[in-house]
Design a protein that fits this description.
The chain has a 5-stranded mixed β-sheet with strand order 1-2-8-5-3, sandwiched between helices. It has a 3-stranded antiparallel β-sheet with strand order 4-10-9. It has one domain: Cytochrome P450 (Cytochrome p450, Orthogonal Bundle). A hairpin with a 2-residue loop joins strand 6 and strand 7. It has 15 helices and 10 strands.
Length: 406
Protein backbone atom coordinates (compact mmCIF):
# COMPACT_ATOMS: atom_id res chain seq x y z
CA UNK A 1 0.00 0.00 0.00
CA UNK A 2 1.34 3.44 -0.91
CA UNK A 3 2.20 5.75 1.91
CA UNK A 4 0.09 8.88 2.16
CA UNK A 5 1.82 12.22 2.17
CA UNK A 6 1.62 14.18 5.40
CA UNK A 7 -0.46 16.86 3.72
CA UNK A 8 -3.15 14.26 2.99
CA UNK A 9 -3.29 12.84 6.51
CA UNK A 10 -5.37 14.59 9.18
CA UNK A 11 -4.15 15.36 12.72
CA UNK A 12 -5.97 14.07 15.76
CA UNK A 13 -9.25 16.02 16.04
CA UNK A 14 -9.71 18.05 19.21
CA UNK A 15 -12.69 20.34 18.51
CA UNK A 16 -15.99 19.19 20.00
CA UNK A 17 -19.46 20.24 19.00
CA UNK A 18 -20.38 22.88 21.62
CA UNK A 19 -23.98 21.66 21.50
CA UNK A 20 -22.92 18.07 22.23
CA UNK A 21 -20.23 18.45 24.92
CA UNK A 22 -20.28 14.76 25.92
CA UNK A 23 -19.59 13.42 22.43
CA UNK A 24 -16.12 12.94 20.94
CA UNK A 25 -15.11 15.48 18.26
CA UNK A 26 -17.23 15.00 15.13
CA UNK A 27 -14.10 14.63 12.98
CA UNK A 28 -12.92 11.80 15.24
CA UNK A 29 -16.22 9.99 14.83
CA UNK A 30 -15.97 10.54 11.08
CA UNK A 31 -12.53 8.92 11.11
CA UNK A 32 -14.07 5.85 12.75
CA UNK A 33 -16.67 5.69 10.00
CA UNK A 34 -13.88 5.46 7.41
CA UNK A 35 -12.57 2.22 8.89
CA UNK A 36 -11.15 0.65 12.04
CA UNK A 37 -7.58 1.75 11.26
CA UNK A 38 -6.72 5.01 9.51
CA UNK A 39 -3.65 7.18 9.09
CA UNK A 40 -2.91 9.91 11.63
CA UNK A 41 -0.51 12.85 11.40
CA UNK A 42 1.29 13.55 14.66
CA UNK A 43 2.36 17.04 15.77
CA UNK A 44 6.00 16.37 14.76
CA UNK A 45 4.94 15.41 11.24
CA UNK A 46 5.22 11.66 11.78
CA UNK A 47 2.59 9.62 9.94
CA UNK A 48 1.19 6.91 12.17
CA UNK A 49 -2.09 5.22 12.82
CA UNK A 50 -5.43 5.72 14.58
CA UNK A 51 -7.46 2.77 15.90
CA UNK A 52 -11.15 3.60 16.32
CA UNK A 53 -13.03 0.28 16.45
CA UNK A 54 -13.80 -1.54 19.71
CA UNK A 55 -12.65 -5.02 18.68
CA UNK A 56 -9.45 -3.77 17.06
CA UNK A 57 -8.70 -1.55 20.06
CA UNK A 58 -8.91 -4.58 22.36
CA UNK A 59 -6.62 -6.55 20.08
CA UNK A 60 -3.95 -3.86 19.99
CA UNK A 61 -4.04 -3.19 23.73
CA UNK A 62 -3.74 -6.91 24.51
CA UNK A 63 -0.93 -7.57 22.01
CA UNK A 64 2.57 -7.45 23.59
CA UNK A 65 4.02 -6.59 20.17
CA UNK A 66 2.61 -3.09 20.72
CA UNK A 67 4.90 -1.35 23.19
CA UNK A 68 3.89 1.10 25.91
CA UNK A 69 7.47 2.30 26.44
CA UNK A 70 7.56 6.07 26.68
CA UNK A 71 10.67 6.46 24.54
CA UNK A 72 8.70 4.96 21.62
CA UNK A 73 5.56 7.04 22.12
CA UNK A 74 4.45 10.21 20.40
CA UNK A 75 1.79 12.52 21.78
CA UNK A 76 -1.22 12.58 19.41
CA UNK A 77 -1.92 16.25 20.15
CA UNK A 78 0.52 19.13 20.37
CA UNK A 79 2.04 20.40 23.60
CA UNK A 80 4.50 23.28 23.79
CA UNK A 81 8.09 22.24 24.39
CA UNK A 82 9.14 18.81 25.60
CA UNK A 83 6.51 16.44 26.96
CA UNK A 84 7.79 14.59 30.08
CA UNK A 85 5.84 11.45 29.17
CA UNK A 86 6.96 10.97 25.56
CA UNK A 87 10.20 10.39 23.72
CA UNK A 88 12.45 9.47 26.63
CA UNK A 89 12.81 6.43 28.93
CA UNK A 90 10.18 5.93 31.62
CA UNK A 91 10.62 7.78 34.87
CA UNK A 92 11.37 5.43 37.82
CA UNK A 93 8.17 3.84 39.05
CA UNK A 94 5.95 5.08 36.19
CA UNK A 95 4.85 1.60 35.16
CA UNK A 96 2.35 2.88 32.57
CA UNK A 97 5.36 3.77 30.42
CA UNK A 98 7.05 0.37 30.63
CA UNK A 99 6.83 -3.07 29.06
CA UNK A 100 7.40 -6.44 30.71
CA UNK A 101 9.37 -7.44 32.70
CA UNK A 102 9.80 -4.02 34.37
CA UNK A 103 6.08 -3.23 34.17
CA UNK A 104 5.20 -6.69 35.52
CA UNK A 105 7.54 -6.39 38.50
CA UNK A 106 6.05 -3.07 39.62
CA UNK A 107 2.44 -3.97 38.92
CA UNK A 108 2.67 -7.13 41.00
CA UNK A 109 3.77 -5.06 43.98
CA UNK A 110 0.70 -2.87 43.62
CA UNK A 111 -2.06 -5.26 42.57
CA UNK A 112 -2.96 -6.53 46.03
CA UNK A 113 -3.98 -3.02 47.09
CA UNK A 114 -6.44 -2.57 44.22
CA UNK A 115 -8.39 -5.82 44.06
CA UNK A 116 -12.20 -5.89 44.11
CA UNK A 117 -12.10 -7.25 47.66
CA UNK A 118 -9.59 -4.70 48.95
CA UNK A 119 -11.34 -1.70 47.43
CA UNK A 120 -14.71 -3.04 48.56
CA UNK A 121 -13.41 -3.08 52.12
CA UNK A 122 -12.73 0.65 51.76
CA UNK A 123 -16.41 1.37 51.03
CA UNK A 124 -17.38 2.33 54.63
CA UNK A 125 -14.56 4.89 54.79
CA UNK A 126 -15.42 6.21 51.32
CA UNK A 127 -19.04 6.61 52.48
CA UNK A 128 -17.80 8.66 55.45
CA UNK A 129 -15.71 10.89 53.21
CA UNK A 130 -18.63 11.41 50.83
CA UNK A 131 -20.97 12.33 53.69
CA UNK A 132 -18.41 14.75 55.11
CA UNK A 133 -18.15 16.52 51.75
CA UNK A 134 -21.94 16.61 51.37
CA UNK A 135 -22.19 18.20 54.81
CA UNK A 136 -19.65 20.81 53.75
CA UNK A 137 -21.64 21.53 50.58
CA UNK A 138 -24.85 21.87 52.57
CA UNK A 139 -23.19 24.46 54.83
CA UNK A 140 -22.01 26.49 51.84
CA UNK A 141 -25.11 26.32 49.64
CA UNK A 142 -28.85 26.43 49.92
CA UNK A 143 -31.47 29.04 49.07
CA UNK A 144 -30.05 29.49 45.59
CA UNK A 145 -26.46 30.07 46.69
CA UNK A 146 -24.22 28.37 44.08
CA UNK A 147 -21.55 25.88 45.09
CA UNK A 148 -18.78 24.63 42.83
CA UNK A 149 -19.33 20.88 42.71
CA UNK A 150 -15.79 20.25 41.44
CA UNK A 151 -14.07 22.19 44.20
CA UNK A 152 -16.28 20.98 47.01
CA UNK A 153 -17.05 17.40 46.01
CA UNK A 154 -15.66 15.88 42.80
CA UNK A 155 -12.04 16.78 43.54
CA UNK A 156 -11.79 16.32 47.33
CA UNK A 157 -13.51 12.91 47.48
CA UNK A 158 -10.96 10.99 45.37
CA UNK A 159 -8.11 13.13 46.71
CA UNK A 160 -8.94 12.16 50.29
CA UNK A 161 -9.35 8.51 49.36
CA UNK A 162 -6.06 8.18 47.49
CA UNK A 163 -4.21 10.17 50.16
CA UNK A 164 -5.39 7.81 52.89
CA UNK A 165 -4.56 4.75 50.79
CA UNK A 166 -1.06 5.95 49.97
CA UNK A 167 -0.31 7.57 53.31
CA UNK A 168 0.00 11.09 51.87
CA UNK A 169 -0.95 14.00 54.17
CA UNK A 170 -4.11 15.57 52.74
CA UNK A 171 -2.92 18.90 54.11
CA UNK A 172 -0.40 18.92 51.24
CA UNK A 173 -3.17 18.72 48.64
CA UNK A 174 -2.79 22.26 47.27
CA UNK A 175 0.72 21.55 46.00
CA UNK A 176 0.19 18.06 44.62
CA UNK A 177 -3.14 18.98 43.02
CA UNK A 178 -1.54 21.99 41.33
CA UNK A 179 1.43 19.99 40.08
CA UNK A 180 -0.73 17.09 38.91
CA UNK A 181 -2.98 19.46 36.99
CA UNK A 182 0.05 21.05 35.34
CA UNK A 183 1.32 17.68 34.15
CA UNK A 184 -2.00 16.95 32.44
CA UNK A 185 -2.45 20.49 31.09
CA UNK A 186 -1.92 20.46 27.33
CA UNK A 187 -0.72 24.06 27.11
CA UNK A 188 1.80 23.78 29.95
CA UNK A 189 5.27 24.74 28.76
CA UNK A 190 8.21 22.37 29.00
CA UNK A 191 9.55 24.43 31.90
CA UNK A 192 6.22 24.35 33.74
CA UNK A 193 5.87 20.58 33.24
CA UNK A 194 9.45 19.95 34.36
CA UNK A 195 8.97 22.09 37.48
CA UNK A 196 5.73 20.31 38.34
CA UNK A 197 7.35 16.90 37.90
CA UNK A 198 10.38 17.92 39.95
CA UNK A 199 8.26 19.23 42.83
CA UNK A 200 5.95 16.21 42.80
CA UNK A 201 8.93 13.84 42.74
CA UNK A 202 10.68 15.70 45.58
CA UNK A 203 7.52 15.56 47.69
CA UNK A 204 7.06 11.81 47.17
CA UNK A 205 10.78 11.10 47.61
CA UNK A 206 10.80 12.78 51.01
CA UNK A 207 7.69 10.85 51.96
CA UNK A 208 9.12 7.53 50.70
CA UNK A 209 12.32 8.06 52.69
CA UNK A 210 10.25 8.85 55.78
CA UNK A 211 8.19 5.68 55.28
CA UNK A 212 11.38 3.61 55.06
CA UNK A 213 12.44 4.94 58.44
CA UNK A 214 9.01 4.92 60.03
CA UNK A 215 6.54 2.71 58.14
CA UNK A 216 2.80 2.89 58.63
CA UNK A 217 -0.21 0.92 57.45
CA UNK A 218 -0.34 2.40 53.97
CA UNK A 219 0.70 1.63 50.40
CA UNK A 220 3.83 3.78 50.35
CA UNK A 221 5.07 2.05 53.48
CA UNK A 222 4.43 -1.33 51.89
CA UNK A 223 6.37 -0.35 48.78
CA UNK A 224 9.22 1.05 50.87
CA UNK A 225 9.66 -2.17 52.85
CA UNK A 226 12.59 -4.28 51.70
CA UNK A 227 15.15 -3.41 49.08
CA UNK A 228 13.52 -4.72 45.89
CA UNK A 229 12.37 -1.20 44.95
CA UNK A 230 14.60 1.84 45.00
CA UNK A 231 13.45 5.01 46.71
CA UNK A 232 13.11 6.58 43.25
CA UNK A 233 10.79 3.75 42.17
CA UNK A 234 8.68 4.05 45.32
CA UNK A 235 8.42 7.81 44.84
CA UNK A 236 7.62 7.46 41.14
CA UNK A 237 4.92 4.86 41.67
CA UNK A 238 3.49 7.03 44.42
CA UNK A 239 3.49 10.10 42.18
CA UNK A 240 1.73 8.18 39.42
CA UNK A 241 -0.95 6.79 41.74
CA UNK A 242 -1.45 10.10 43.52
CA UNK A 243 -1.79 12.21 40.39
CA UNK A 244 -3.80 9.82 38.22
CA UNK A 245 -5.71 8.48 41.22
CA UNK A 246 -7.43 11.76 41.97
CA UNK A 247 -7.44 13.54 38.58
CA UNK A 248 -9.23 10.80 36.67
CA UNK A 249 -11.91 10.04 39.24
CA UNK A 250 -12.48 13.73 39.87
CA UNK A 251 -12.98 14.18 36.14
CA UNK A 252 -15.41 11.27 35.99
CA UNK A 253 -17.41 12.57 38.97
CA UNK A 254 -17.62 16.16 37.77
CA UNK A 255 -18.39 15.34 34.16
CA UNK A 256 -20.73 12.55 35.25
CA UNK A 257 -22.82 14.93 37.35
CA UNK A 258 -22.90 17.41 34.46
CA UNK A 259 -24.06 14.63 32.11
CA UNK A 260 -26.81 13.45 34.48
CA UNK A 261 -28.06 16.99 35.07
CA UNK A 262 -28.12 17.42 31.28
CA UNK A 263 -30.14 14.19 30.89
CA UNK A 264 -32.92 14.58 33.50
CA UNK A 265 -34.71 11.44 32.29
CA UNK A 266 -31.64 9.34 33.09
CA UNK A 267 -31.11 11.10 36.41
CA UNK A 268 -34.74 10.38 37.29
CA UNK A 269 -34.21 6.68 36.58
CA UNK A 270 -31.13 6.58 38.79
CA UNK A 271 -32.71 8.43 41.70
CA UNK A 272 -35.87 6.32 41.49
CA UNK A 273 -33.81 3.14 41.70
CA UNK A 274 -30.48 3.53 43.54
CA UNK A 275 -29.77 -0.13 42.75
CA UNK A 276 -28.96 1.12 39.25
CA UNK A 277 -25.85 2.86 40.59
CA UNK A 278 -23.34 0.20 39.51
CA UNK A 279 -24.86 -0.03 36.05
CA UNK A 280 -25.05 3.76 35.72
CA UNK A 281 -21.38 4.08 36.60
CA UNK A 282 -20.39 1.69 33.81
CA UNK A 283 -22.58 3.54 31.32
CA UNK A 284 -21.17 6.93 32.33
CA UNK A 285 -17.64 5.59 32.01
CA UNK A 286 -18.44 4.33 28.52
CA UNK A 287 -20.41 7.36 27.40
CA UNK A 288 -17.95 9.98 28.66
CA UNK A 289 -14.55 8.21 28.30
CA UNK A 290 -12.54 11.02 29.86
CA UNK A 291 -9.20 9.75 28.51
CA UNK A 292 -10.20 11.54 25.31
CA UNK A 293 -6.97 11.53 23.28
CA UNK A 294 -6.47 7.79 23.38
CA UNK A 295 -3.71 5.41 24.38
CA UNK A 296 -0.35 5.55 22.56
CA UNK A 297 1.41 2.39 21.44
CA UNK A 298 4.20 1.50 19.03
CA UNK A 299 4.79 -1.84 17.23
CA UNK A 300 8.08 -3.49 18.10
CA UNK A 301 8.16 -5.30 14.75
CA UNK A 302 6.60 -5.06 11.32
CA UNK A 303 3.13 -6.59 11.41
CA UNK A 304 -0.20 -6.70 9.60
CA UNK A 305 -3.29 -5.19 11.17
CA UNK A 306 -6.77 -4.71 9.71
CA UNK A 307 -5.45 -5.03 6.16
CA UNK A 308 -2.56 -2.61 6.63
CA UNK A 309 1.17 -3.14 7.04
CA UNK A 310 2.50 -1.41 10.16
CA UNK A 311 6.22 -0.80 10.49
CA UNK A 312 8.20 -1.15 13.70
CA UNK A 313 8.43 2.19 15.48
CA UNK A 314 5.37 3.76 13.90
CA UNK A 315 3.09 5.47 16.38
CA UNK A 316 -0.37 4.06 17.01
CA UNK A 317 -3.08 5.87 18.95
CA UNK A 318 -5.94 3.73 20.26
CA UNK A 319 -9.03 5.92 20.54
CA UNK A 320 -10.94 4.75 23.60
CA UNK A 321 -13.73 7.27 23.10
CA UNK A 322 -14.63 6.10 19.59
CA UNK A 323 -14.24 2.44 20.58
CA UNK A 324 -16.77 3.05 23.35
CA UNK A 325 -19.15 4.60 20.81
CA UNK A 326 -18.76 1.74 18.32
CA UNK A 327 -22.27 0.80 17.08
CA UNK A 328 -21.09 -2.73 16.31
CA UNK A 329 -20.47 -3.21 20.05
CA UNK A 330 -23.05 -0.94 21.72
CA UNK A 331 -26.57 -0.35 20.45
CA UNK A 332 -27.40 3.33 19.93
CA UNK A 333 -24.01 4.25 21.44
CA UNK A 334 -24.44 8.02 21.34
CA UNK A 335 -27.37 7.78 23.75
CA UNK A 336 -26.84 7.81 27.52
CA UNK A 337 -28.85 4.98 29.07
CA UNK A 338 -28.17 4.18 32.74
CA UNK A 339 -29.99 0.86 32.34
CA UNK A 340 -27.73 -0.28 29.50
CA UNK A 341 -25.49 -3.32 30.21
CA UNK A 342 -22.30 -1.44 29.34
CA UNK A 343 -19.82 -4.10 30.40
CA UNK A 344 -16.88 -4.49 28.05
CA UNK A 345 -16.24 -0.78 27.61
CA UNK A 346 -12.64 0.37 27.34
CA UNK A 347 -12.70 3.46 29.56
CA UNK A 348 -10.02 1.85 31.75
CA UNK A 349 -8.08 0.48 28.79
CA UNK A 350 -7.46 -3.21 28.26
CA UNK A 351 -4.73 -5.80 28.55
CA UNK A 352 -1.65 -5.75 30.75
CA UNK A 353 -1.85 -1.97 31.23
CA UNK A 354 -5.54 -1.80 32.12
CA UNK A 355 -5.96 0.84 34.83
CA UNK A 356 -4.82 -0.63 38.13
CA UNK A 357 -7.15 1.65 40.10
CA UNK A 358 -10.33 0.82 38.19
CA UNK A 359 -12.04 -0.98 41.08
CA UNK A 360 -11.29 1.88 43.45
CA UNK A 361 -12.71 4.41 40.98
CA UNK A 362 -15.84 2.32 40.52
CA UNK A 363 -16.36 2.05 44.27
CA UNK A 364 -16.00 5.80 44.73
CA UNK A 365 -18.43 6.58 41.93
CA UNK A 366 -21.02 3.98 42.99
CA UNK A 367 -21.11 5.60 46.40
CA UNK A 368 -20.80 9.25 45.36
CA UNK A 369 -23.50 9.62 42.69
CA UNK A 370 -26.49 8.19 44.65
CA UNK A 371 -25.45 9.95 47.85
CA UNK A 372 -25.11 13.32 46.10
CA UNK A 373 -28.54 13.23 44.46
CA UNK A 374 -30.22 11.78 47.54
CA UNK A 375 -28.91 14.69 49.62
CA UNK A 376 -29.71 17.34 47.02
CA UNK A 377 -32.63 16.03 44.93
CA UNK A 378 -33.31 19.47 43.46
CA UNK A 379 -29.76 20.01 42.23
CA UNK A 380 -29.39 21.95 38.97
CA UNK A 381 -26.64 23.89 37.19
CA UNK A 382 -26.31 27.48 38.40
CA UNK A 383 -25.22 28.62 34.93
CA UNK A 384 -26.32 27.70 31.41
CA UNK A 385 -24.72 24.44 30.22
CA UNK A 386 -22.94 26.33 27.42
CA UNK A 387 -21.06 28.36 30.06
CA UNK A 388 -19.68 25.33 31.93
CA UNK A 389 -15.90 25.43 31.48
CA UNK A 390 -14.94 22.07 30.06
CA UNK A 391 -11.47 20.55 30.24
CA UNK A 392 -10.63 20.26 26.56
CA UNK A 393 -7.19 21.66 27.41
CA UNK A 394 -6.38 18.68 29.67
CA UNK A 395 -5.20 15.15 29.05
CA UNK A 396 -8.28 13.99 30.95
CA UNK A 397 -11.60 15.45 29.85
CA UNK A 398 -13.82 16.89 32.53
CA UNK A 399 -15.15 20.18 33.82
CA UNK A 400 -12.95 22.76 35.50
CA UNK A 401 -15.87 24.04 37.56
CA UNK A 402 -19.56 23.18 37.87
CA UNK A 403 -21.58 25.73 39.86
CA UNK A 404 -24.78 24.12 41.14
CA UNK A 405 -27.73 25.05 43.31
CA UNK A 406 -30.56 23.07 44.88
Amino acid sequence: MARAGSEDVPPHPTTRDPHRPFDPPPALMAARDKGPLTRLRYPDGHIGWLVTEHELARRVLADPRFSARSELKRAPVARPGTDPFYGSPALPGWLVDMDAPHHTRLRRRLMGWFTVRRTGALAPRIEEIVEERLDAMARLGGEGEPVDLVEQFALPVPSLVICELLGVPYAERADFQRNSATLFQLDATAEQAATAMRELDAFLTDLAEHRRRSPGDDLLSELARGDDLSTAEVAGAGALLLSAGHETTAGSLGLGVFALLSHPDQLARLTADPALAANAVEELLRYLTIFHFGVPRSPLEDLDLAGHRLRAGESVTVSLSTANRDPSRFEDPDHLDVTRPASGHLAFGHGAHQCIGQHLARTEMKIAFPALFARFPGMKPAIPPSQVLRGEDMGFYGVHALPVTW
